[in-house]
Design brief:
Length: 278
C-alpha cells in the first residue's frame, strides 16, 4: 500500500519534481479548449440556434467573457503558478475553479448540439486540474498570510454576505413559487442547486475557517472570492445580448451584478495583498 502511494506521488511530481506538473498540463488543455469553444460560440453562427432567446443571450455573454477575460486570467494564473509563489498557486487555483464552475452549465443547459463533447471535455479537464492542484497544495503554509483581526473579520463578513445573497435569492424564489405557483426565469432549479451547494456552503466554510485563523480558510476564501467576483462579469455580459434580443429584463439585474463583483473580489484582494505575519 505504501509502495502504491509512493508511485502515485512520483507520477504526480514527474521528472521536474514539481507536484503541479499534472495540474499545469490539464490547465493548459482547458485553456486551449476554452479559447476554441468561446471563439466558436461568438464567431461561428448556429452554436445556440436551438436555445431560447434568453439562453442565447446568456451563453453569448459567457463566451464573450470566457474569451476576453477568463482566458487572459488563466494565462496570468499559469505564469504565476509556474513561478512557484505561494499566492500565485492560490490565484491559479481560484481561476481554475472559476473556469470549472463556468463550464458546469454548458453541457447541462445548452441545447444538445454538435459541441456537446467539447463542453464536457472542458468541464472534466478543468475540474481534474483543480482537484489535482488542491491535492498538491500544502494549505498549512498559508496560515502565516492570514491578516490581522480587522482584515480577517472584514474578509469573512463579506464572504458571509455573499452566501446570504444566494440564500435570499434562491430560497426567496422558492418561497415565491410556493405562494404563487409561478416561476419567473428558466433553469431555476439547476442554477439554484449549483449556487447553494457549490457556492453558498463553501463561502460559509471559508469564512468560518478564516475567522479561526486556519490556512485552509485563507486558501478557500481567495478561491471563493475569485469565483464569485469574476463570475459576476458573465452575468453583466448578458445585458448587451439581451438588449439586442429585445428581452424585457435586460437592464434589471446589471447594478446587482456590479455589486456582487465588488462583494466577491474585495475579500480575495484583501487576502492576496496581506503580508506574512510574524
Amino acid at each position: 500500500m505504501m509502495s502504491d502511494h509512493s508511485n502515485l506521488k512520483s507520477m504526480m511530481q514527474g521528472s521536474s519534481g514539481s507536484s503541479f506538473q499534472v495540474p499545469i498540463i490539464l490547465s493548459k488543455i482547458s485553456l486551449l479548449l476554452m479559447f476554441v469553444e468561446s471563439a466558436i460560440g461568438l464567431f461561428i453562427p448556429g452554436a445556440y440556434t436551438k436555445d431560447s432567446a434568453w439562453g442565447r443571450a446568456v451563453f453569448l455573454g459567457n463566451d464573450l467573457i470566457n474569451l476576453f477575460l477568463f482566458t487572459p486570467l488563466l494565462i496570468i494564473a499559469l505564469i504565476l503558478l509556474k513561478r512557484g509563489s505561494d499566492k500565485g498557486k492560490v490565484f491559479w487555483l481560484g481561476i481554475q475553479a472559476l473556469v470549472t464552475y463556468d463550464y458546469i452549465y454548458y453541457p447541462l443547459a445548452v441545447a444538445y448540439n454538435i459541441y456537446f463533447l467539447l463542453y464536457v471535455t472542458i468541464l472534466g479537464v478543468s475540474l481534474y486540474s483543480f482537484i489535482f492542484g488542491i491535492n498538491a497544495l500544502d494549505v498549512s503554509i498559508y496560515q502565516k498570510y492570514i491578516p490581522g483581526k480587522h482584515g480577517r473579520i472584514t474578509a469573512s463578513v463579506l464572504l458571509l454576505a455573499f452566501a446570504l445573497v444566494f440564500v435570499f435569492l434562491w430560497i426567496g424564489r422558492y418561497i415565491s413559487f410556493l405562494i404563487t405557483g409561478k416561476l419567473d426565469m428558466d433553469g431555476v432549479s439547476m442554477i439554484s442547486t449549483f449556487d447553494l451547494i457549490t457556492l453558498a456552503v463553501p463561502l460559509v466554510l471559508s469564512a468560518t475557517w478564516l475567522l479561526k485563523g486556519e490556512g485552509r480558510g485563507y486558501v478557500l476564501s481567495i478561491v471563493m472570492g475569485l469565483v464569485c467576483g469574476f463570475y459576476s462579469f458573465i452575468l453583466m455580459a448578458y445585458t448587451p445580448y439581451a438588449l439586442k434580443a429585445n428581452l424585457s429584463d435586460a437592464w434589471t439585474m446589471l447594478p446587482f451584478w456590479i455589486f456582487t463583483a465588488i462583494l466577491g473580489l474585495t475579500p480575495a484582494m484583501i487576502l492576496l495583498m496581506s503580508k506574512p505575519q510574524n
